[in-house]
Amino acid sequence: MTTTAPALRRIHEIDAVRGFALGGILVANISFFADPGLSVAISSMDFNRDPVSLTVQTLVLTKFYVIFSFMFGYSFTMQMRSWGEKVKPRMLRRCLGLFLLGVTQGILFWIGDILTLYAALGLILLALRNVRPRTAVKIGCWIIGVMSAIWLILAGLTMLDPSAGVTTPPDPAVMAAAQAQVTGSPLSFLQFQLQTYPMLAAFVWFGQGPMAMALFLFGMAAGKSRLLEDRERWARLAPRVLWIGYGVGLPAAVFFTWSSHDEGALQLVGLALNNILSLPLAAAYVVTLLLLVRRLPAVGAALAPAGRAAASNYIGQSILQCLVFTGYGLALGGRLTPIAVIGVAAAIYTVLLLLSAWWMRHHRYGPIERVLRGFTQYSADPQPLR
């Protein structure tokens, strides 16, 4: 006998967290649009050392994809409840839809797209959907532990042979050529995308893949426990999360930024610590937001519409960044100061929040969500995707 799972109500706080994470991802990604040379020098970790860039690297870089990945796993448990026995075929189609969206965005707009990675890891999450929350957390911890151990082993090997940790400085001519190609005609930017996307996609898959999988599992464990849906439960945990997150995670983030400019073992140690301690700092960000939303509901009301249309906003911010920095539009890549770039990010985020609020007053789903939902479900199912 076929049964239909009951419709689930949207959780306002979860949508607000997604909307918040989108802002952090925008700030983390915009430097690659604003300075096209970074896309061909990513392996050197040769980021700018001005105060604005150092602040972004410390407080934003690697922190918000943690939140976004966690929320993907959490949302998967809500989809399982909504889809019931149809979870397997629907999740397979959803992952295929995400993969196609990711490839399209990677070629046309943003070479650092993560949707293809999420689609692939979503298949693994689907296979592990019946594991207990405690088991999911243990697997995630093992993944993070192994990745951190690898960085520490490499650090030890670098100490034995210092020349092994020295990277080749990026060629200024290559970086200048990348900027000229990105800010040239729309066709030259598209050629840059086609040339660079495979390389950077591999970097994203191998650089972020294991950590994203661990966060998927943590999110799934939290979702099965309905952690964010039980306000009193997470509120009881809030003081501990804030003390650990800011007390330990923030100094570790400062060390990560400081060590990233060293080409030897110190940089690798920083990466190992960041693998572990970026998690409590990201958790502290989320708890701070949730407490703020409880005190000031208007904050949640401003962020939640964007969170309801997370995929549309993720792709939308890439399109708007292209219009500002590439040959698709104003071609300002390489011409703005870091503080001006942050100003552009704030403007883009504000525009997307306003557009999301307007759109969600008239529609139940974001434009990308509607297409993805139809592809996933093949019918006008009244149950919302989360």
From TrEMBL:
Spell out the Pfam families in the cross-references.
Answer: DUF418
Q: What is the lineage of its organism?
A: Bacteria, Bacillati, Actinomycetota, Actinomycetes, Streptosporangiales
The yes or no answer to whether the keyword Transmembrane is present is yes
Q: Does the keyword Cell membrane apply?
A: no
The protein's UniProt keywords, in alphabetical order, are: Membrane, Transmembrane, Transmembrane helix
**Where are the bilayer-spanning segments?**
20-42, 54-76, 96-127, 139-160, 197-220, 241-259, 271-293, 314-333, 339-360
Q: Which domain of life is it from?
A: Bacteria
**Protein name (database record):** DUF418 domain-containing protein
Show the InterPro entries listed in the entry: Bact_Transport_Assoc (IPR052529), DUF418 (IPR007349)
Residue ranges of every copy of the DUF418 domain listed in the record: 222-377
